[in-house]
Design brief:
By secondary structure, the protein is α/β, with parallel strands linked by helices. The chain contains seven helices and 13 strands. It folds into two domains: 192 residues, P-loop containing nucleotide triphosphate hydrolases (Rossmann fold, 3-Layer(aba) Sandwich), CATH 3.40.50; 66 residues, no CATH class. 31% of the residues lie in helices and 30% in strands. The structure holds adenosine-5'-triphosphate. The site of adenosine-5'-triphosphate has 11 residues, from helix 1. Adenosine-5'-triphosphate (ATP) binds next to helix 1. InterPro entries: AAA+_ATPase, ABC_transporter-like_ATP-bd, ABC_Transporter_VariousFunc, ABC_transpr_CbiO/EcfA_su, P-loop_NTPase.
C-alpha cells in the first residue's frame, strides 16, 4: 500500500516515478538544481506537472525552502492564522513545538533568527496534523544540536502518529539512521529509489589488480582505475570474491557520490 505515488514530468523533471508506504521517512537527495524543490512543489500541489500525476492520501503540509511567512506577523498571529486556515488544527501540538524551542510569541517574524523561523513553520505545519509532511531542506538554518533534536522530534511524530515524512537535503550525513528510503536525483532524473538498508546491502566495492572488466556479475555503478589497481562499485549484493580482490560494503555517502558521479 502506498500513501504517496508520483509519475511526473515538469521542466527538468523527467519521468520521475515512485511510491512511498505510509509511515515512511524518505530523503530526497541530489545535487544543486537536480529537481528536489520542483518535485516537492509538484507533490504539494503548488505546481501542475506537465505530464503524469501524483496522488497523496490524507492531509499534506509543506514547508518550502524559504519558509514564506508574513514578516509583520507576531509568532502568536502565525498560530491564529494556522487555526483559521486549516480545517483540522491542533493548537497544543503547535504550542508544544514552540515551547520546546523557547520561541517568544510576541516577536515579529522579521525579528526572529533563521533557526527560530524554522521552528515557527514546523509548528505551523505540525499543528495542521498532516498525514504527509513535505520539508524542503528543513535543517539548513539549524545549528548541529538543534538539527539532532528536530530530527528526533520529527521521528517521534512519525512513530507516534503514523505520519509520512519526505524531506530534501544535499547533506548525506543528515540521512544516516533517519531516512528509511532514499530518492536520489540528478539532472531531473531519479537515479536511485529504494530502502536505505537494502541499498547499502546491495552495493559492494571490489578492489584489486588493474582490470578492464568487473570481477563479478552485476551492474557496475562506477569503475575507477589507477596505474596498478582497479575498483568496481557493483550493485550485486555479495562480498565473496577470490584473492587478490577484496570486497567491502560502502557507506551511504560513498553510494550517493558514486551514483551522482555516474549520473553527471
Ligand atoms: N520556473 C521555472 N521554469 C523553468 N525551469 C525552472 C523553474 N524553476 C526551476 N527550474 C529549473 O528546474 C531545475 C531544478 O530546480 P530545483 O529548484 O527543483 O532544484 P533543487 O534540486 O531543489 O536545487 P537546490 O539543491 O539548489 O535547491 C533547475 O535547473 C531550475 O533551473
Amino acid at each position: 500500500m502506498s500513501v504517496v505515488a508520483a509519475d511526473v514530468s515538469k521542466w527538468s523533471l523527467r519521468n520521475v516515478s515512485f511510491e512511498l508506504p505510509p509511515g515512511s521517512v524518505t530523503a530526497i537527495v541530489g545535487s544543486n538544481g537536480s529537481g528536489k524543490t520542483t518535485l516537492l512543489n509538484v507533490l504539494a500541489g503548488h505546481l501542475e506537472p506537465e505530464s503524469g500525476h501524483t496522488s497523496i492520501a490524507g492531509r499534506v503540509a509543506y514547508v518550502a525552502q524559504h519558509k514564506p511567512m508574513y514578516k509583520s506577523f507576531k509568532v502568536a498571529n502565525v498560530l491564529q492564522f494556522g487555526r483559521r486556515m486549516n480545517e483540522v488544527w491542533d493548537n497544543d501540538r503547535a504550542e508544544q513545538w514552540l515551547d520546546r524551542y523557547r520561541i517568544p510569541r510576541k516577536l515579529q517574524i522579521e525579528d526572529l533568527s533563521g533557526g527560530q523561523r524554522t521552528h515557527v513553520v514546523l509548528a505551523l505545519a505540525l499543528g495542521s496534523r498532516p498525514d504527509v509532511l513535505l520539508l524542503d531542506e528543513p535543517l539548513a538554518e539549524l545549528d548541529p544540536l538543534a538539527r539532532r533534536k528536530v530530527v528526533r522530534e520529527l521521528l517521534t511524530e512519525v512513530n507516534d502518529n503514523g505520519m509520512t515524512l519526505i524531506f530534501s537535503t544535499h547533506v548525506v550525513a543528515e540521512i544516516g539512521g533517519v531516512a528509511d528510503r532514499l530518492l536520489l536525483m540528478s539532472n531531473g532524473r531519479l537515479l536511485v529509489d529504494g530502502e536505505t538498508d537494502a541499498l547499502l546491502e546491495e552495493h559492494v566495492l571490489y578492489t584489486g589488480p588493474h582490470a578492464s572488466k568487473s570481477p563479478v556479475e552485476g551492474p557496475v555503478v562506477l569503475a575507477k582505475h589507477g596505474r596498478s589497481q582497479s575498483s568496481y562499485l557493483v550493485r550485486s549484493g555479495g562480498t565473496r570474491i577470490d584473492e587478490p580482490w577484496t570486497a567491502r560494503y560502502v557507506t551511504l555517502e560513498e553510494l550517493v557520490v558514486a551514483h551522482l558521479e555516474r549520473g553527471q
